[in-house]
């Protein structure tokens, strides 16, 4: 039989362990998730010139619930049929619901066209590691240019520094910045490539900087025998079916040390495993570090597969997007067992006010 002193000691030890448990407990890995099913139909009217965003003034279409804003480029056509970004039931993954559809135009002389971005703001501080999962479906018969090497962007992940969320590069508000693309090099004759573009924290830092301020990687999809597969092949991203894309970014541990990482999974298969990235490069901010805090769905394209005069449009759709601090996987269902983290919040404090019960020996 324990005496009073032993019982009190055991209870205090239990409280200490409970305190550690509460301080270390993961309060859910999911930072953001959306299957678009609960949104009203949404699609800003295409501007006739310039750019238009949620900040465009009275009468402007506000961002869908849960999103920080949007931007859309003017149509290159006289009679644009669809908004660049639309949430509706035209496309959905599963038996029913909605998805986010991007309608892609082209431009004979302006190069990059159909720019549309929908913003997700995670928190002001950010995270040293981030996973983003989404499902994507391309219109059956999607075309790629053969007069040039076409590229299509569909995502941006970054640290947003404040200011205008739609400015990039030399005068931009994002750094570091990661942009995944699909590309058909060799004037459209090469197999489809996963083209990952990295813009380190000091974008446009002097060329003499070591490491460099930016880099990129080409990764080609392979079958089980190691043969390159093309966009339209069965089981590939352009076969008209839904496919799971997952991205992982890990900040480098020390400014100027190139030990950052990037991984990419296609339908659960690891396709790219890139190391040696200096997201915070030479001269980057040391404290606090600029961590991943912003995700933008969409992007522009350079894909002149036809003449602008014909005003062609083709689409790709995105559904079931999840952002997390741990690996997600293709099987996770929106609204599943994982808890959504309220960002910019701290974990609850250990319980207080518990009383030690005096037990007689």
Task: Characterise this structure.
With 361 residues, this protein is mostly beta strands. The protein has a single domain, classed as Jelly Rolls (Sandwich). The protein has 1 helix and 18 strands. It has one helix at 4-24; strands at 30-34, 51-53, 69-73, 85-88, 99-104, 116-121, 129-138, 151-153, 155-160, 174-183, 193-199, 214-220, 243-250, 260-266, 269-277, 294-298, 301-302, 314-324. Strands 2, 3, 6, 8, 9, 10, 11, 12, 16 and 17 form a 10-stranded antiparallel β-sheet that branches. Strands 1, 4, 5, 7, 13, 14, 15 and 18 form an 8-stranded antiparallel β-sheet that branches. Strand 14 (260-266) and strand 15 (269-277) form a beta hairpin. The radius of gyration is 24 Å and the shape is globular. It starts with a helix and ends in a 37-residue tail after the last strand. The model is unreliable at 6-28 and 343-361 (pLDDT under 50).
């Amino acid at each position: 039989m324990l005496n009073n002193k032993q019982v009190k000691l055991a209870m205090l030890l239990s409280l200490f362990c409970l305190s550690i448990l509460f301080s270390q407990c993961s309060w859910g890995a999911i930072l953001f998730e959306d299957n678009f099913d609960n949104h009203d139909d949404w699609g800003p009217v295409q501007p006739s010139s310039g750019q238009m965003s949620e900040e465009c003034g009275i009468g402007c279409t506000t961002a869908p619930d849960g999103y920080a804003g949007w931007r859309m480029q003017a149509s290159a056509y006289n009679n644009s049929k669809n908004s660049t970004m639309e949430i509706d039931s035209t496309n959905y993954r599963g038996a029913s619901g909605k998805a986010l559809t991007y309608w892609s135009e082209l431009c004979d002389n302006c190069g990059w066209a159909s720019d549309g971005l929908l913003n997700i703001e995670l928190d002001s501080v950010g995270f040293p590691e981030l996973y983003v999962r989404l499902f994507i479906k391309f219109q059956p018969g999607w075309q790629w240019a053969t007069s040039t090497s076409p590229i299509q962007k569909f995502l941006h992940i970054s640290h947003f520094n404040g200011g205008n969320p739609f400015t990039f590069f030399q005068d931009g508000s994002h750094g570091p910045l990661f942009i995944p693309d699909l590309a058909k090099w060799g004037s459209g004759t090469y197999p489809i490539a996963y083209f990952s573009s990295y813009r380190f924290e000091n974008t446009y830092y002097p060329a003499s900087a070591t490491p460099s301020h930016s880099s990129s990687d080409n990764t080609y999809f392979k079958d089980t025998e190691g043969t390159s597969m093309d966009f339209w092949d069965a089981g590939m991203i352009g076969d008209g079916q839904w496919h799971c894309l997952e991205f992982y970014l890990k900040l480098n541990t020390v400014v100027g040390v190139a030990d950052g990482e990037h991984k990419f999974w296609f339908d659960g298969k690891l396709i790219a495993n890139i190391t040696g990235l200096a997201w915070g490069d030479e001269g980057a901010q040391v404290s606090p570090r600029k961590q991943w805090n912003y995700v933008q769905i969409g992007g522009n394209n350079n894909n002149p597969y036809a003449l602008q005069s014909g005003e062609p449009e083709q689409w790709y759709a995105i559904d079931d997007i999840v952002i997390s601090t741990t690996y997600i996987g293709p099987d996770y269902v929106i609204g599943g067992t994982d808890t959504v983290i309220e960002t910019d919040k701290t974990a609850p404090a250990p319980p207080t006010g518990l009383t030690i019960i005096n037990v007689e020996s």
